[in-house]
Design a protein that fits this description.
Layout: E1 13-15, E2 17-22, H1 28-32, H2 34-47, E3 55-65, E4 68-77, H3 78-87, E5 95-103, E6 109-114, E7 124-125, E8 128-130, E9 136-137, E10 140-141, H4 143-155, E11 163-164, E12 168-173, E13 176-184, H5 189-202, E14 208-214, H6 226-235
Helix pairs in contact: 2-3
Length: 242
């Protein structure tokens, strides 16, 4: 039997693509943990009533071979994702998402700070979001489409024609899998910061608090999550340019 290797942990590595096939059945981990998932959500409704229990995509059986991550995806309630993040179980369940690494013409990385009334209040990271119903097409989950969508929604930038590298980057820790694509934009950090700030100020959802210009990893501050710290260390290291 040919078993594909697991995704490497705690390091940034190059990736060619992601192939996720949708299974209409309930994720086995979600089904087995329905009671604690519902209990946690009941607490969230009291503590953070602004959160919305919409549909996200969780995965199982993720493996990597020949530069391709593959696996099976399932629709799941957002409550299940919150429980997964909080408990980090040793189980066949994964939260995989895509991030847009926006790079200015003068070498800066454009990050965002999440607003108070979000699940990740105060955290600084690249435009990103959980895969959801809009990322499903013809029985597959479109991670790269999600990256463009999240960048457009959170920054107002259309990156579909931006210069980019051929492949992707990936980082994993346990059940968290972050997929990155780096985009070179022909505008300076100052110009991009103004454009993103204008978008934030007129945004109806008020999910983003501020834009953060990063020229070295420490510029992101202490609230950058581990996957972003790893990506910034990789990007700003010698020889890791786009």
């Amino acid at each position: 039997m040919n078993v594909m290797p697991e995704i490497p942990e705690d390091s940034v590595f190059a990736l060619q693509s992601v192939r996720l096939d949708l299974d209409e059945a309930e994720h086995p981990w979600v089904a087995a943990n329905s009671a604690p998932i519902e209990a946690r959500w009941a607490r969230e409704e009291i503590e953070r009533p602004w959160l919305f229990n919409g549909t996200v995509i969780l995965h199982r059986g993720l493996r990597v071979e020949d530069g391709v991550i593959s696996g099976v995806s399932h629709r799941a309630p957002y409550a299940a994702l919150l429980h997964l993040v909080a408990t980090q179980p040793r189980a066949d369940v994964f939260h995989l998402f895509g991030s847009a690494i926006v790079l200015s013409s003068d070498g800066a990385m454009m990050l965002i700070r999440m607003a108070r009334k979000t699940a990740n209040a105060g955290k600084v990271y690249a435009p990103a979001g959980s895969l959801d119903q809009s990322d499903i097409s013809d029985g597959r989950v479109d991670v790269e489409g999600s990256i463009l969508r999240e960048a457009r929604e959170e920054t107002g930038l259309d990156l579909s024609n931006a210069r980019t590298e051929t492949g992707l980057l990936c980082w994993r820790k346990g059940g968290l899998v972050a997929i990155f694509r780096r985009f070179n934009v022909d505008e300076t950090a100052a110009v991009l910061a103004r454009r993103i700030s204008d978008h934030i100020s007129t945004g109806a959802e008020e999910e983003i608090e501020d834009v953060v210009v990063v020229r070295k990893p420490d510029d992101a501050g202490p609230t950058a999550p581990p996957y972003m710290k790893a990506l910034m260390a990789y990007h700003f290291s010698a020889g890791a340019g786009v």
